[in-house]
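Subject line: Sequence and fold of a protein, written as structure tokens
Enclosed: The protein record, placed directly beneath this head.
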Amino acid sequence: MLIMTSQWLIGLVYFFAAFLLIFGLWRMSSPVTAAGGIHVAGWGMAAAVIVSFLYVFSVSEAARPHLPVNVSLALVALLLGGGAAWWSGRKAAMTAMPQMVAIYNGMGGGAAAAIAAMELFGGRVFDLSALAGTLFGALIGAISLSGSLIAWAKLDGRINKPLHMKGLQLINALLMLVTLCVGAWLMVVMHAEHGSLNGVLWLIGVFFGCALLFGVLMTLPIGGADMPVVISIYNAFTGLAVGLEGFVLQVPAMMIAGMLVGAAGVLLTLLMAKAMNRTVAHVLFARFGGQPVRKGAAIVGELKPTAASDAGVAMRYANKVIIVPGYGLAVAQGQQKLYEFVKLLQAHGVLVRFAVHPVAGRMPGQMDVLLAEAGVPYDLIFQLDDINTDFADTDVVLVIGANDVVNPAARSDKASPIYGMPILDVDKAHHVYVIKRGEGKGYAGIQNQLFYAENCNMVYGDAQAVLVKMIEAVRGLG
């Protein structure tokens, strides 16, 4: 009776945890409720983890010796993992968020692959449908793990150049074919032998080794400009892997959470691909971001540097100002000073809004999080489709550390590698000021036509230092 009660309670808590995850994800769809949604989903995950420890008490005494559960080891792992996550999360700067997301996502895929490995090496899976789910989850979980680690290394500056190798796509195709064939043979043998590992232990090792290697080789050719797409793809992989392993283990919370994360990752991938004018097939199978850069049309005009104080004064006397944040703002940690400058302009009657491109920064939503951290009200932040038509009627646009997402070549130069990519129509404003640390190029490796336009001036320097000078100049006007 006690065992049945425990099983009933575990199932109830799992479904409650799943509800909290769904509700939390729904709240994350709006910046106004996103923070609360994260907390709700976190409580759901905590409930699922805690109640999992009751599993060992929900079976009979005879079955307990066969359970693959070491409660003491699990507690130690939770304390170590939770402590490391808490410490690294509090320590990480905003510029380190993309690589943190990448490595945590990889850990999720690795966990799913580890669960699959436990099931395979334990010989507990021999039904064909369960074997298929276990092996497929192991495959994409391992790919997500190794691929996410490479993405982390690229974002963290540990791998600076994409891998260029002739025939790499053919190598990847053959490697995947070998992995699938090994997986199919494992299914046949383990099904026939009812989970027996006689003669297949080495095959399991080959299967995981090939999957991990495929994740590495698939990610190495990809350039830094496409890391937002890579992160969203591996996010989908991790979710799907977790969902499949949840199906094998018959854990509803894992199934629901995994499918939610997988579906969200797929949708995010589609949005990122659209924002970069790519098809999903091109994202998955072409060497996007790693191709040789085309030069594009010759740049007409010259760079026109100006002082930060002059730019600040010009915005003080403008009626409408739009600010475009980019990765340079995150690097300089200038979001607090930026909002201080915005409030100063608002006090003088200037209408100020923010325009955010879907792929600004190094991961989806990074600019929104950056502005939220500074306390910028959500009703001042607009996405590309909502504000693009307003640039032509704007007095001054201030671009901070953004490059490719404001390059007019995407509209006019068919030879440009970014041609067709939706951009913010900054060049259509009456005047543009660009804060930039130097004359470096963006991720696409091409010159920005905007910087040479007649209505554009460059303000060189660290974004935070430049904003301080702008604040001083506006305050000096009285």
Q: What stands out?
A: The radius of gyration is 26 Å. The chain has three domains: 1-91, 94-292, 308-475.
